[in-house]
Amino acid sequence: MDKTPKVGIIMGSQSDWPTMRHAAETLETLGVPFEAKIVSAHRTPKRLVEYAETAQDRGLHVIIAGAGGAAHLPGMAASMTALPVFGVPIESKSLKGQDSLLSIVQMPGGIPVGTLAIGKPGAINAALLAASVLALHDPAIRTALNQWRIRQTEAVAQEPQDED
Ligand code: RP5
After folding, report:
1. Which residue among 11, 23, 104, 105 is least crowded, i.e. fewest CB within 10 A of its CB?
2. Is the ipTM of this complex over 0.90?
3. pTM for the whole thing?
């Protein structure tokens, strides 16, 4: 099986990993080859340019970019590649991720970023969306994604239980 990463997960800081690892774990479950890198729009701008400009030639099909606060990473990545970019707003301490959400979602017309929910649900859904894109041309990923959805449905109990 080809192990060349098809999805690039990038994040602005090590502090984003507790959120972004949920994207990584979801892709792993689905058997989607990915890479995960710290790339900061502000602290490592040259790394970002290099990453975005070479992403397609290196075989990536989708980029998932997580960032918090003044979250310019997804938009700047999208400005330098025509690959689909999904943005995950990290739940920041000061504004609970509302700052991240607004700075990722409100892109100018012409440079799209598919913006997900704040935090863990957004990270999981970004991975599922990336898998959906790949599944259009990859039957193994399509099967894995369908099975994942069946398992999720089957895991929902008919009746609630006391938790304590
Ligand atoms: C952003 O600043 C990162 O994406 C992170 O969410 C936020 C805070 O970074 P640290 O100060 O924790 O490194 O660039």
Report:
1. 105
2. yes
3. 0.97
